[in-house]
Amino acid sequence: MRFAATFGFIILLVLGGMAALAFLLTRLMGGDGQVARLVWVMGCGFSFALPVLAVALAVRAFRQIATPLAEVMAAADAVADGNLGVRVPVHGRSDFQRLAISFNRMTAELARADQQRRNLTADVAHELRNPLHIIQGNLEGILDGVYEPTDEHVAATLDETRALARLVEDLRTLSLAEAGQLPMTWEAVDVADLLADVGTSFEGQAEAAGITLSVSSAPGLTLIGDAGRLDQVLSNLVVNALRHTPAGGAITLRAEPIGLADGRGGTRIIVADTGAGIPAEDLPFVFDRFWRGDRARTRSEGAGSGLGLAIARQLVHAHGGRISVESTPGRGATFTLDLPANPANATSAPE
């Protein structure tokens, strides 16, 4: 009721004001009553048209600005409540379209990271379960008198504890590398010596498996890096190659100079084998945690923990490089490391 009275009073003021304005304009212009009525009608029309136009513009501005912001705020509240599947409609002005696209990309990345966390938890639990069950079974069998505490049973239990220790250390290394907190000892590394050391470490295993292991490097290749970490990367790749290359096959480890995309010089290290190769559908996932080419293989049958390639990728990234793989099933796999001669973060990395 109060609103209606106020609104009516405003209308009376507008009509009265327009009448007074019409009277004054008529007197000033020397017109008659018809002119006064015309001026009064036009003034009233403008008086009502302008508020209507203002309201229309306000509604449009609200739809273009307030509505997209409200949608983003509602989606942000949903994300805060744990709903990572929420998405914001992409509409409105270009600025709000970019905001919606960025928000949706953020939530998609959060959802992916959350799924990776869940997968990692499940994978770690699975990897820990098997050796723990073996250790528990062996110890309970000895305590119950089912097994004699022979050197064989003690050694088997000790092997499982070592497997657990390796898994924990691999997880620690991977976690530190992904966080950029892995200690690095930067020094000048002779690439030929690095490859020769790796070749020497595995030549006995290769010979025993009937596999030819060849090592070659262009002369004078050096880079700034952590020799121990680079050795770890190459050792992981050679171990995988030995695991999947049959007797009579060959593994090649070689290095050559390259020019990187940013104009810096660098070194390309290639580890190639003539083994079973990797199916095309598995190639995008070979550097993921706990990925295994043959899901049916267990650690006791020669399969690793599935962290070696994930660690290798993080260590290569820590050197400012990149690692990639190409493979044709039945014709082997080729892993390529492109490393800059002097990583940009070499001077600032923790010792």
Structure report:
It is a single chain. By secondary structure, this protein is an alpha+beta fold. It folds into three domains: 79 residues, no CATH class; 85 residues, Orthogonal Bundle (Helix Hairpins); 154 residues, 2-Layer Sandwich (Heat Shock Protein 90), CATH 3.30.565.10. The chain has seven helices and seven strands, in the order ααααβαββαββαββ. The strands form two sheets. Strands 2-4-5-7-6 form a five-stranded mixed beta sheet. It has a two-stranded antiparallel sheet with strand order 1-3. A hairpin with a 5-residue loop joins strand 6 and strand 7. Helix 3 packs antiparallel against helix 4 and helix 6 packs antiparallel against helix 7. The chain starts with a helix and ends in an 11-residue tail after the last strand.
Order of helices and strands: HHHHEHEEHEEHEE
How many beta strands in the DSSP annotation? 7
Strand content: 5-15%
Mean pLDDT: 79
- What CATH architecture of the largest domain would you give? 2-Layer Sandwich
The spatial strand order of the largest sheet comes to 2-4-5-7-6
- Examine the coordinates and then state which fold CATH places here, giving the name of the CATH topology of the largest domain: Heat Shock Protein 90
Q: Count of DSSP helices?
A: 7
Major pleated sheet = 5 strands, mixed
Can you tell me the residue ranges where pLDDT is under 50 for at least 5 consecutive residues? Answer: 295-303, 347-351
Tally the structural domains: 3
Would you spell out the secondary-structure blueprint of this structure?
Blueprint: H1 2-29, H2 33-80, H3 94-143, H4 151-178, E1 187-190, H5 191-208, E2 212-217, E3 222-225, H6 227-244, E4 250-259, E5 265-273, H7 308-318, E6 322-327, E7 333-340
Parallel strand pairs: 2-4
Antiparallel strand pairs: 1-3, 4-5, 5-7, 6-7
Helix pairs in contact: 1-2, 2-3, 3-4, 4-7, 5-6, 6-7
